[in-house]
Design brief:
The chain has 439 residues and is of the alpha/beta class. The chain folds into two domains: 28-299, Spore Coat Polysaccharide Biosynthesis Protein SpsA, Chain A (Alpha-Beta Complex); 329-435, UDP N-Acetylglucosamine Acyltransferase, domain 1, CATH 2.160.10.10. It contains eleven helices and 31 strands. Strands 1, 4, 5, 6, 8, 9, 10, 11 and 12 form a nine-stranded mixed β-sheet that branches. The chain has a six-stranded mixed β-sheet with strand order 18-21-24-27-31-30. Strand 15 and strand 16 (337-338) form a beta hairpin. The protein is globular and about 70 Å long.
Length: 439
């Protein structure tokens, strides 16, 4: 018999949820549904999203990006979850079916994967974030939740949604918007909430040149996280109103939220009030890993002695599907041919055979062959790195075969001719790029 929260081989089970930073089990969360918007194209991740949606991109050696939003919902006590998919969703759907199939209808739980399927009209896919929810109104109403939490499926953070639900009820809001506290002049790329002394939103400004300050922190601004709480019946009414508006783009950030700021009661919820973090995490952690530079930086940060995100926290686990794999293996102990890793994360199934890692992250099933040196690199699953390879500041896509002797990260001009390079010097390597290399 397995203990609570541990699965038999290959069979994920409903975990025993533990909670950090909260005093009770959160009754409001039990009456809520999480609706996760996971159709993001993720075009700024370039070739990493050629075959997968952004929420399906790997993160942290074990997870997919979407696992963070889903785990937050599960750990918060929410047991009814819908995930709307659209762009190149096959790998995402396969991951969800493998790792998130433990919900049981007899316990009034539910997990629905909702691909865009022209349910409203034969010529309409999801045309906006609000439309993705509108097209599935009947499924939401079938679960009869009291509240709906709209979540983005493409951010890295740990959050207890119960305090946000409580604030929504206590302030009798029409919508509650979760917000990050950002240095004011760094908020120019966000949707910014202008609030009064009670955190009621009095204006919503998209990517302002001069962001409005917080009343109590004039050097800071409140940036929308794309997380919204609604009472279900009210949300259904708003979605139907918006769907009937031919001038609307049917988007929460562009249409629904601005409308409620003007005609209803919209309230900001500060992320610091519900962020879950351990004693080792000095700040409220939230990352949009939507560019190659941001993706590389967030992954490599996990190799630090004290990373900004504690992935070893057991009180708020990030759940996922893990394939059965043997432990990581390090072999050979000769000078210049020693299997070793310094300040690195090495996943199950990896073999470091006479190669050396420094400040790098290897996903499952990677092989590093003799005399190779890997530094500050993110290597996705099932990559084979040949002998005498040197990689520095790279992201290597899944399944790539790195030929012996290849050197990347030491000659920017040469790298730019062969691979995808960023302004900060991060190099993305895919199999098609390797196949184009001269013999």
């Amino acid at each position: 018999m397995t203990s609570p929260g541990h699965a038999s081989p290959g069979l994920p089970v409903a975990p025993a949820v533990t909670r950090a930073n909260r005093s009770d089990s959160g009754p409001l969360a039990r009456d809520a549904m999480a609706f996760v918007l996971a159709g993001g194209r993720g075009s700024r991740l370039m070739e990493l999203t050629d075959r997968r949606a952004k929420p399906a991109v790997y993160f942290g050696g074990t997870w997919r990006i979407i696992d963070f939003a889903l785990s937050n919902a599960l750990n918060s006590g929410i047991r009814r979850i819908c995930v709307a998919t659209q762009y190149k969703a096959h790998s995402l759907i396969r991951h969800l079916q493998s790792g998130w199939n433990f919900f049981r209808q007899e316990r009034k739980e539910g997990f629905d994967i909702l691909p865009a399927s022209q349910r409203v009209a034969e010529d309409m896919w999801y045309v906006g974030t609000a439309d993705a929810v509108y097209q599935n109104i009947d499924i939401i109403e079938g679960y009869t939740p009291q509240f709906v939490i709209i979540l983005a499926g493409d951010h890295i953070y740990k959050m207890d949604y119960e305090p946000m639900l409580r604030q929504h009820v206590e302030q009798k809001a029409d919508v509650t918007v979760s917000c990050l506290e950002v240095p004011r002049m760094e908020a120019t790329g966000f949707g910014v909430m202008h609030v009064d002394e009670t955190d009621r939103i009095i204006d919503f400004v998209e990517k302002p040149a001069d962001p409005p300050p917080m009343p109590d922190k004039p050097d800071m601004a409140l940036a929308s996280m794309g997380i919204y709480v609604f009472e279900t019946r009210f949300l259904m009414e708003e979605l139907r109103r918006d769907a009937a508006d031919p001038t609307s783009s049917h988007d929460f950030g562009k249409n629904i939220i601005p409308h409620l700021v003007k005609h209803g009661k919209a309230v900001a919820h500060r992320f610091t009030a519900s962020c879950v973090r351990s004693e080792s995490e000095p700040e409220a952690y939230w990352r949009d890993v939507g560019t190659l530079d941001a993706y590389h930086e967030a992954n490599i940060d996990l190799t630090a002695v004290v990373p900004a995100l504690n992935i070893f926290e057991r009180d708020w686990p990030i759940w996922t599907y893990a394939e059965i794999a043997p432990p990581a293996k390090f072999v050979h102990d000769l000078e210049g041919r020693r299997g070793q890793a310094v300040s690195s994360l090495v996943s199950a199934g990896c073999i470091v055979s006479g190669g050396a890692l420094r400040s790098s992250l290897l996903y499952a099933g990677v092989r590093v062959n003799s005399f190779s040196r890997i530094e500050t690199s993110v290597v996705l699953p099932d990559v084979d790195i040949g002998r005498r390879v040197r990689l520095r500041n790279t992201i290597v896509d899944r399944g790539v075969r790195i030929p012996p002797g290849l050197v990347v990260g030491e000659d920017p001009e040469l790298d730019a001719k062969r691979f995808r390079c960023t302004e900060k010097g991060i190099v993305l390597i895919t199999q098609s790029m390797i196949d184009r290399l001269p013999e």
